[in-house]
Every structure is written in C-alpha cells, then in structure tokens.
C-alpha cells in the first residue's frame, strides 16, 4: 500500500494550483518594467565592447560584428583609469567606514541614553538633512582653500561625513528594538561604556552596517559636483570626473562613446559586487529598520 507524505501532497497541490488571470497581467507588467530598467545597462555593457564606428551606426549591431577589449585597454593605459578607480575606491571606503561608525555611536546615544535636550538635538540632526549642499558649497570651498585642502582627497571626505544625520536616524530606529537588558548586563559585569558599544552593540548591528555601508559607499562613489570643484590634478580625479574628461575638445566633436561605455561598466562593477555580496544583510537591515522603532 502506497502512503503519500504530506510533502508530496503539498507539492501536487501547488503544481495543480492555477494562477489567476489578473496575476498573469501583474507578472507581465513587472517583467516589462524590469526589462525597461535593465535595457540601458545591457546596451552599455554591449557598447563597451564595440568600436566607435559600430556605436554610431543605427541600429547598433549587437551580434553582427565582433567584440573587442581595446576600449578597456585604452582607458587603463592611456587615461590611467586604474589610478582613478583606486582614488574613488579608497575615498569611498574611508568615508563609509568612518561615517557608519559615527552613525552607530550617534544612534546608540540617541536611542539608549537619557540626557537634557536629547529630543532637541535629534530634531536639529534631522533638520540638517533639509539644508541643500548647493547652499553651502561656495563658503565651504573658501574654507577648504584657506585650510589647504583643495585638490586633496581629505577635502572630499570631510563634507560627506555630514551625511551622518541620516545614518544616526537609521541607527536610532534600528537600536530602539534592541533590549536595554544587554547593556545593563554589560555594566553589571564591569564593562566600560565604550566596551559595551564595541563588544555588545556593534556585533548586533551587522545588518544595519551592510545597509548603510552600501548606501554611503554608493553615495561617495557617484559623487560628482564637489570633486569637480575641489580636484584640479588628473592624478587626483575620481571616476565621475574622469568620465567627464573623456569628452573631446571642440563644439562639433563627438564624445568617445566607446570609452565612456567602458568606463561606465568599470564604474558600476563595485556597486554590483557590493550589493550581491551583502544582499542578505542589506535586505535584513532595511526590513528590521522599517519595523523597529
């Protein structure tokens, strides 16, 4: 006598279940929107392996002509794109690590400590997000020029640390769902306040760190306006400025689209690697930060 397990029964029920017609239309629309979003990146990737002549043809031959890596070789050999990529990477990495640690400390203090004017300080911190960067750009440049930080990467990192306001708010919401008994137990065991933060709180914040890390790293990586103003030397350039400098001189001259596409592909690779590498923590940090508080 054959006995069906509950797992096999559930599997058959799932297979026999029909998808409603309305859901089919929803899936079709989602697939269509996804394709519209992915199409520019797909075109960019294919164009990065094409010559300038192929790109200028209409329509561009996708698979009729061959692919070449000459574009990537040229940007790394002629335009020092390896140095430019390294500049963007270590500026973004230093800014990200510094900012998420300060954000964690700020969010921890605003969430777990009681002191005078705590709410006022929190409102001022959140209110600073309403100040547009363009309104402080000129006086900031004058200050940095007097401090000798023009054409230096430190001048790129310091203004971005002001984004700690968003990080402090995010960490405050995340930490509000963590029991204060962990902190009290650390104090009973004789641990200092910094010891409690570094040994107890930081390990709990891994999902939040992944979320803020991706957001801050992407923000610094794609920063364009301030590096364009501050940086003067080609050896100090970051990727967005290097891509801008690929444009040819003259009014009628066309930009080298084949080099721009190759540089753009290189510029998005760290973002793709970071997202897929920390995807689990990123989604966990977003969902936990949304429901806590």
Description:
Helix 12 packs across helix 16. The protein is an all-alpha fold and 293 residues long. The C terminus is likely disordered. The chain has 16 helices and no strands. It is globular. The protein has 2 domains: 51 residues, no CATH class; 219 residues, MetI-like fold (Orthogonal Bundle), CATH 1.10.3720.10.
Keywords:
293 residues, mainly alpha, MetI-like fold, 2 domains, 0% strand, disordered C terminus
- At the first level of CATH, the class of the largest domain is Mainly Alpha
Helical amount among residues, as a percent range?
Answer: over 70%
Helix and strand element order: HHHHHHHHHHHHHHHH
Quaternary state of the chains: single chain
Helix/strand structural class: mainly alpha
CATH architecture of the largest domain: Orthogonal Bundle
Radius of gyration: 25 Å
Share in β-strands: under 5%
What characteristic shape results from the CA principal axes? globular
Number of domains: 2
Number of strands: 0
Count the helices. How many?
A: 16
Largest sheet: none
CATH fold title of the largest domain? MetI-like fold
State the separation between the terminal residues, measured CA to CA: 56 Å
Quick summary of this structure?
With 293 residues, the chain is an all-alpha fold. Helices cover 72% and strands 0% of the residues.
Could you give the topology of this structure?
Layout: H1 6-16, H2 21-47, H3 52-56, H4 70-77, H5 81-112, H6 118-127, H7 133-147, H8 154-160, H9 164-175, H10 181-188, H11 193-204, H12 206-221, H13 225-230, H14 239-245, H15 257-277, H16 279-291
Helix pairs in contact: 4-15, 5-8, 5-9, 5-12, 9-16, 10-11, 12-15, 12-16
């Amino acid at each position: 006598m054959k006995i069906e397990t509950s797992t096999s029964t559930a599997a058959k029920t799932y297979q026999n279940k029909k998808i409603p017609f309305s859901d089919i239309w929803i899936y079709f629309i989602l697939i269509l929107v996804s394709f519209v979003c992915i199409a520019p990146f797909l075109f960019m990737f294919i164009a990065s392996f094409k010559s300038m002549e192929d790109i200028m043809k209409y329509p561009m031959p996708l698979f009729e002509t061959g692919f070449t890596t000459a574009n990537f070789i040229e940007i790394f050999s002629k335009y020092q794109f390896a140095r430019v990529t390294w500049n963007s990477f270590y500026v973004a990495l230093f800014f990200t690590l510094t900012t998420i640690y300060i954000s964690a400390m700020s969010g921890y203090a605003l969430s777990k400590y009681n002191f005078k004017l705590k709410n006022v300080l929190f409102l001022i911190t959140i209110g600073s997000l309403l100040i547009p960067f363009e309104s402080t750009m000129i006086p900031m440049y004058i200050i940095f020029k007097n401090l000798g930080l023009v054409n230096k990467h430190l001048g790129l990192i310091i203004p971005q640390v002001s984004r700690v306001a968003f990080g402090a708010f995010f960490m405050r919401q995340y930490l509000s769902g963590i029991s204060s008994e962990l902190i009290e137990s650390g104090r009973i065991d004789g641990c200092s306040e910094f010891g409690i933060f570094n040994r107890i709180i930081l390990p709990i914040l891994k999902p939040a760190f992944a979320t803020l890390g991706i957001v801050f790293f992407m923000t610094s990586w794609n920063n364009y306006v301030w590096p364009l103003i501050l940086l003067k030397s080609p050896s100090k350039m970051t990727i967005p400025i290097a891509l801008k400098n690929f444009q040819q001189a003259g009014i009628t001259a066309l930009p080298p689209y084949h080099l721009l596409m190759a540089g753009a592909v290189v510029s998005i690779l760290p973002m793709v690697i970071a997202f897929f590498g920390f995807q689990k923590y990123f989604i966990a940090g977003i969902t936990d930060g949304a429901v806590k508080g």
